[in-house]
Write a structure and sequence with these properties.
about 35% helix; alpha/beta; Rossmann fold; two-stranded antiparallel sheet
């Protein structure tokens, strides 16, 4: 499934979260976030996307040419993120993904999903 946000296009796995991706493409999901990124992120940027989930922000920033460090602790969301990155080989080169959490101490935590 092709997603277009502003002038940036990328592909996502339509098997997962199709309604969400349609919402992103409509421009109604976090328009203020994309506006800020559009104004401040460029090909000279290095950014950290903490809680990158399935990649909407990471893919957009990489599409703008930024080097992105994408951090997602949820193993299910992380696998979907990886699936979306693989669909975008040119952007995948600009995104380094990490499956861990950022916390003030080193310990095991329990993640909760909506379902």
């Amino acid at each position: 499934m092709k997603i277009k946000v502003k002038n940036i296009e990328f592909l996502v796995n339509e098997k997962f979260n199709q309604l969400f991706w349609n919402y992103v493409s409509s421009g109604k999901w976090e328009p203020h976030t994309f506006e800020i990124i559009d104004n401040f992120v460029s090909e000279n940027s290095s950014v950290i996307d903490i809680g990158s989930w399935i990649g909407p922000i990471s893919l957009f920033m990489a599409g703008k040419g930024a080097q992105v460090y994408s951090v997602e602790p949820d193993p299910v969301a992380y696998q979907e993120l990886i699936s979306n990155l693989k669909l975008n080989p040119a952007l995948d080169q600009r995104i380094q993904s990490f499956n861990f959490a950022i916390a003030p101490e080193d310990k095991e935590i329990k993640l909760y999903a909506r379902k």
